[in-house]
Amino acid sequence: MTGAEPAxxxxxxxALGVAGAAASLALGWLLVRVTLAVLWRTGPLxxxxxxxxxxxGTGWAVALPAGCAPLLWAWWAGAEAAHLARIxxxxxxxxxxxxxxxxxxxxxxxTGLRGHLRALLAGRPTTGAAKAVGGLVVAAAAAWLSxxxxxxxxxxxxxxxxxxxxxxxxxxxxxxxxxxxGCAFFLLLPALPASAWPHWLPAACAGAxxxxxxxxxxxxxGDTGSNTIGALLGLWTAWWxxxxxQLLWLGVLVALHLYAERRSLSDLIARVPLLTYLxxxxxxDGSPPPPAERSR
Length: 296
Hints:
two-stranded antiparallel sheet; 2 strands
């Protein structure tokens, strides 16, 4: 592989694609149900902005099919698909586990990358700092295994790591992270080759199944979900976008992080009517607009 645009041969037959879509939808619905049931019994639970106690970490319902389902396709499709599936599993497992640590033991007393760095330099390591460092390591390994070298490796590393944290920055209101990730994915979708659907379809279907619970405030993605979904978007961007597209996406991510370090993304969304409408779309009628909150 050159690391520029992985080739996976011809796309699968249409019948296989339809069967894969149906199976992914069913799997996504089932995993959401099972994940919610397990988390309600075992935790972690957290109080949301409305004062309701809800399970956090429901992103496992997306992470499990996103990491495991491509391996089944790879068993049938050959060595190239298997190599990509293993890289995707590495990214999903790494970011989901790092996010789960933050969901279970993390504190919201320190927020933002700068805040976690300051705490680390002051001798007060946080789960957020561990997640950031661990995410860089996972992203670096994934970029290297994908065949990127030199400057292309650095760009791919940053895209994966910053995409993961970028979606996490938005995960402050019900449904916001999933909606934003869905919009980003639809922009990316035309660039994906036909043979790439086994890599994205299970995650997309599971995310769609989880969205109604998330947007109505009945569950939280948690860092388990937001970091994993963002990292997947970054990985697919690095794999299948041309160099100019990767640099454009990296510029957007850098701008998002710089803004979030200085100002509130929630305040920005509240000032733009279209963003406010999209942010509250699907939420229960009469839900009060939540107060401003600094990004994590």
